[in-house]
């Protein structure tokens, strides 16, 4: 997610080499400027509230990040385009590794969806992990309760490519 805007209040880059068996806990509350920046990035009317916490701990070769995310978003209904409020409360657990695979990998290899995410650059930003969880938790097609799609008055009529020619002939 290199295009993600820089959100100062949601940034906590940890040096992976420093993560040990003592939990590293961070709490986040998005500032008003960061909420506006995120809403513009996502193309939504607004982000009223965004907060969370994340804890990173090393367990052998794996680094686990466990946390909770809370958000109140103003979204646009996909049917009526009216604004609606989406509440998100999400617990999550992600695993990472700082050991990149070695050796030659086959060109065509199926992705292991349960495999830990590789950490590149020696830094793990817990704020970015929280934002990724937000993106996954958001309703991809928000729909306001009771919203009905517009009805096309000509729906169900038989249409022929020669209809336009027939109208020209009538004139």
SSE inventory with pairings:
Elements: E1 13-15, E2 24-29, H1 32-42, E3 46-59, E4 62-76, E5 83-97, E6 117-118, E7 123-125, H2 126-137, H3 163-170
Parallel strand pairs: 5-6
Antiparallel strand pairs: 1-7, 2-3, 3-4, 4-5
What does this structure look like?
- It is a single chain.
- By secondary structure, the chain is an alpha+beta fold.
- Helix content is 18%, strand content 34%.
- It is built from 3 helices and 7 strands, in the order ββαβββββαα.
- The N and C termini lie far apart (58 Å).
- Residues 140-171 are annotated as: Disordered.
- This is DUF177 domain-containing protein.
- InterPro entries: YceD.
Keywords for this structure?
YceD, 171 residues, 18% helix, alpha+beta, DUF177 domain-containing protein
Instruction: Compute the number of strand runs.
Output: 7
> What average pLDDT do the residues reach?
86
Strand order of the largest sheet: 2-3-4-5-6
Question: What's the N-to-C terminus distance?
Answer: 58 Å
Q: Could you say how many structural domains there are in total?
A: 1
SSE run: EEHEEEEEHH
Task: Report on the biggest sheet.
Answer: 5 strands, mixed
Silhouette: elongated
**Residue ranges: pLDDT <50 for 5 or more in a row?**
none
Gyration radius (Cα, Å) is 24 Å
Bin the strand percentage: 25-35%
Structural class: alpha+beta
Q: How many individual helices?
A: 3
Helix content: 10-25%
